[in-house]
Specification:
Length: 697
């Protein structure tokens, strides 16, 4: 190991979209200022570290996927430590601290971190620092920042204890001497404020920078007393600021003319094999005056080996909005360079440890290709990015405001005006016009443009060679921090892509007068290991899917109908569907559900319409959770007596949680038990994979 063993700790990260890696890099950067050295590795690089023989403290930063699984990069590690043959003292020598990242919008909050934490404890490892669980729903920094602040003292104490056990008194004295000044320094941070000069290279390497208000020539608007993205008010505007360390630059971009060929899109997808398939059908399921516009698209997969089951999901590889890419090029002063090829390399002499070209960035491609297919230009900028943008801003007032937004003191402003307002990089450039970042900063700080996931809404048994899916066109209304309304990255692009199919003209009609499309989209599978029909067709099941949450259940019912036709001697359990939408005449997405009801595929169909008025003496139920309560005895019978399954698909916060509450109340009432006991039963149903959710935030 290259690190000084007297001050070394092992730093491991497991990331899905880059969050955990970015936090680990921040820890690595701050370590030096505390007299420590972090030996940092991705948790998948098991050839570069060995927990079986590790003597120094270990710090783990790990994220969680939407389904509650550890990230892909941690799969091998988790599989290794979950070996049942390992003895309970396997890691008795190990001391560690773990920071888990998650989103409480999803059912299995921070489950990736919890899984690793629990297993390490089972194998005898000990905490030297309490586990932190950060929630992306309210802001990771609310837990991450104080967790990192407390980490340093805990690490030094752990190193002291380690050396004492080894009897190395001389090392104990050395570490003790280095610990005392750091403790004094940390205690004095609140009372002593140091000047920050952004040009000072020495200050750039520190872990936390402070700044006096007097160092900035800030002109506070006399009339505007309301805070906003660009305007601050006391106490933030009058505070000395604790600002993150400036991330070291590590990417170099070289322009190389217009000759060459862009890489194939499949080279950007490391997870799976991609398939290029045509869109053969597009139908608008909602009326023009509906609040949301829902589309159904049909893909032709007959010439591929793409396979799926009802309940699976798949991903669409999508580009950024072309107009936004052009606008970004214009603001960066690169409008004439969009079609030029660029070579992306690691900057020589960079101070970033283990710097490498991001895997999602081709070594050579056009600038427009990178901005269109590789970078998530709609991503909410992280504080480290804001810190880097400070260096590119010439106006003193704008510079100060960017410093505030990335500081500890401006945390609530960051949440309100950037994170909660979904402000993106382009919005920042409009709001702070003197900010002129270099191209390498975009590549360093903007995350990978993620493919978007959709639930399959068809059955390959019912429609061989076809794959259907349903989605709402996401609308992002304007707000004070974002004066321009936008459509979702993928749903907006798909809506434009299929416009000729939705509104055909003579150029989009074939000889039979039917609309057709020769354009293709790239997709790859995202199988779901649990959200499938019961293996035993005699098992009854209930489905809850309001709005586009009905999508996978169309595939369920198509599949069940085909099985009933092909196996007339089989016994099939009863099926229930609870569906809801705003208006019966505007957004009842699949009125042909009645066909499934009439042919016996669907046993019970219960619907509700939340915005329709009623003249009935007793108001009809508004939401699916309300209908479910009306059928309490049936729900209890299916789940408890007949060992059936319960499926939920759709919005988590406003629907799935309400449905779970309703089921708990039903179980409590029908079992004549208290709510806690009912919650335990629901937890058991989840464990048995009989209460299944496919939800989104």
């Amino acid at each position: 190991m290259c690190c000084d063993s007297k001050r070394r700790f092992l730093l491991l990260y497991a990331t899905q979209k880059g969050q955990a890696k970015a936090i680990a890099e921040e820890i690595w950067q701050q370590a030096g200022a505390h007299g420590l050295e972090a030996d940092m590795h991705c948790i998948s690089e098991m050839d570069k570290y060995n927990l079986e023989t590790e003597k120094d403290p270990v710090v783990i930063v790990i994220s969680t996927t939407g389904t509650g699984e550890p990230p892909d990069s941690a799969r091998k590690f988790v599989k290794k430590i979950q070996d049942t043959a390992l003895p309970p003292d396997h890691f008795a020598h190990l001391q560690y601290g773990l920071l888990g990242l998650g989103d409480s919008e999803y059912m299995f909050f921070c489950n990736g971190g919890k899984t690793v934490d629990r297993r390490l404890q089972e194998l005898g490892a000990r905490h030297f620092y309490d586990t932190g669980l950060a929630d992306d729903c309210v802001g990771l920094e609310l837990v991450v920042d104080p967790w990192i602040d407390g980490l340093w003292l805990a690490l030094k104490e752990a190193l002291l204890l380690q050396k004492e056990k080894e009897g190395m008194n001389n090392v104990v004295n050395a570490v003790t001497n280095s610990l005392a000044p750091h403790v004094v320094h940390e205690l004095n941070l609140s009372s002593e404020v140091h000047n920050l000069k952004l040009e000072d290279e020495g200050a750039r390497s520190s872990d936390v920078l402070s700044q006096k208000l007097g160092d900035i020539n800030l002109v506070v608007p006399a009339r505007n007393t309301e805070p906003s993205l660009v305007n601050s008010v006391p106490p933030v505007s009058q505070s000395a600021l604790n600002i993150p360390a400036l991330p070291p630059e590590y990417i170099e971009v070289q322009f190389q003319g217009t000759h060459g060929k862009n890489p194939h899109l499949s080279s950007l997808i490391s997870e799976e094999t991609t398939f290029e398939v045509p869109v053969t059908k597009a139908v608008q399921l909602t009326r023009e005056d509906a609040v949301k516009t829902a589309l159904l698209l049909e893909l032709d997969i007959s010439d591929t080996v793409f396979d799926y089951q009802p309940g699976d999901a798949f991903c669409v590889v999508c580009p950024n909005n072309a107009n936004e890419v052009e606008e970004l090029l214009h603001i960066l002063g690169l409008s004439e360079k969009g079609d030029d090829f660029v070579c992306v390399k690691v900057k020589q002499g960079t101070k970033k440890k283990g710097a490498s070209r991001p895997q999602h960035i081709p070594e050579r491609s056009t600038l427009k290709f990178i901005l269109t297919w590789c970078l998530e230009i709609r991503a909410v900028p992280k504080k480290a990015f804001l810190r880097a943008l400070v260096e590119c801003t010439s106006d003193a007032g704008e510079k100060r405001r960017l410093q505030e937004l990335c500081s500890r003191q401006g945390a609530s402003d960051y949440m309100r005006f950037i994170r909660d307002s979904h402000v993106c990089f382009l919005d920042l450039l409009h709001a702070f016009p003197s900010c002129k970042p270099s191209l390498n900063l975009l590549i360093e700080h903007l995350p990978k443009l993620q493919a978007r996931s959709y639930s399959v809404s068809s059955s390959n048994l019912y429609q061989p060679g076809k794959l259907c899916f349903v989605f709402n066109i996401v609308e992002l209304p304007s707000c004070p921090s974002r004066p321009i309304s936008r459509k979702g990255v993928c749903t907006g692009w798909l809506a434009e892509f299929v416009a000729p199919l939705l509104h055909p003209n003579k150029n989009t009609l074939d000889a039979k007068g039917e609309s057709f499309s020769t354009e293709k989209i790239s997709i790859f599978p995202r199988p779901n290991n649990t959200f499938h029909l019961p293996a035993d067709p005699s098992v009854p099941f209930m489905m809850v899917g309001p709005g586009t949450g009905i999508s996978p259940f169309i595939g369920f019912l198509q599949h069940r109908q085909k099985l009933r036709e092909e196996h007339t001697d089989w016994e099939f359990g009863e099926t229930w569907l609870f569906f809801g939408c705003r208006h019966q005449d505007r957004d009842y997405l699949f009125k042909q559900l009645r066909c499934f009801l009439e042919n016996g595929t669907l046993t019970h169909l219960k619907v509700c319409f939340s915005r329709d008025s009623s003249t009935a003496e007793v108001a009809p139920p508004k939401y699916v959770q309300d209908i479910i309560r009306l059928y309490a005895k049936e729900v209890a019978r299916v789940l408890l007596e007949e060992k059936g399954c319960f499926y939920i698909c759709g919005d988590k916060k406003h629907m799935a949680d309400g449905v779970s509450d309703a089921v708990v109340d039903i179980l409590s009432m029908e079992m004549e038990s208290d709510r806690l006991e009912a919650m335990k039963i629901l937890a058991m149903l989840r464990e048995e994979k009989r209460y299944l959710q496919d939800v989104w935030s």
